[in-house]
């Protein structure tokens, strides 16, 4: 998985629709031939798509060293039991009769909703497996988008790993999709052994202390997506050493300053054109996703880029380019934001962005593309932000307005 792979949920839904359509066509063909299409029956069979969706479940995002995921996704189900994904290797399949509940539950962010818990098991090859789910009447499973609770098969697991001593065996963040963004859940869970002493999770600018249970098990539930929350899990052990596990955090992913959807920094060039252009787009691809206008400049040859360019601009709802561009640039209905975004060459040592009221934000400088960006809330205006660029030869450049910006390439021949 790449550092920007956050499991595009619209793609998964389209995949579910394709699977459902294929199943319907195959069944129809079988009926025309006077026989049923072979396959699993009853509750273990992948159902046709039902309106509304019964259950959408996104895959586990990240695991600690030594762990592996079946990388399977349960899209649309019906029946009383959610089956294990097909074609799961034995090292990722719990052995029959080994599943056991951890004995603790955690509240959902919405008061009165079903509580969450963990289930442990041993794989067919002896690995430790863990699964996050909900507990209803002593049964382990999930409440679907239709409000029905379904038991989760004992052969289903989020991930399995070797058992490690004085270190985490399994740490992960699983996303449970929903029709509305406010109903999406990210469940952080882990197993780190009896020497685990403390767990903290930073999310959305706040840090929460998470209870540690028998065997170093822990679980926390958050409303929202990992990249929007910027989850940072810290584990502390009896001998004082610590582990850090970030989820939804990547060098080119930018959190929204007002707690909105996260952004990703993207740059590129048009073939035959010397201009480098940088844009900010929604971190998770979705229909009608907003993007910033492009900030473009010239840094020279790709292997020896030098200099710096950046735009300082306040974007308001409806902001879009005056002509067609391969870099997009429609802010749509996104609330106002002040952006500082651009790129720098190999001769730049650091970039620091300072905002109003004494706020200090250090621009992270990335190789090899050199793109950077900072975003401020709706109350910040141009002139209240300064950018300090320090070059490797000792020079310093300080600006409070756009610098080195050139016109954005257009789709028509010759550009704008």
Structure, explained:
The chain is mostly beta strands. The protein has 2 domains: 59-68 and 85-247, no CATH class; 253-399, no CATH class. The protein is built from 2 helices and 27 strands. The strands form 6 sheets. Strands 2, 3, 4, 5, 6, 7, 8 and 9 form an 8-stranded mixed β-sheet that branches. Strands 1-10-11-14 form a 4-stranded antiparallel β-sheet, with no helix packed on it. Strands 13-12-15-16 form a 4-stranded antiparallel β-sheet. A hairpin with a 4-residue loop joins strand 15 (231-237) and strand 16. It starts with 8 loop residues before the first helix and ends in a 17-residue tail after the last strand.
Task: Jot down its keywords.
disordered N terminus, mainly beta, 416 residues, elongated, single chain, 27 strands
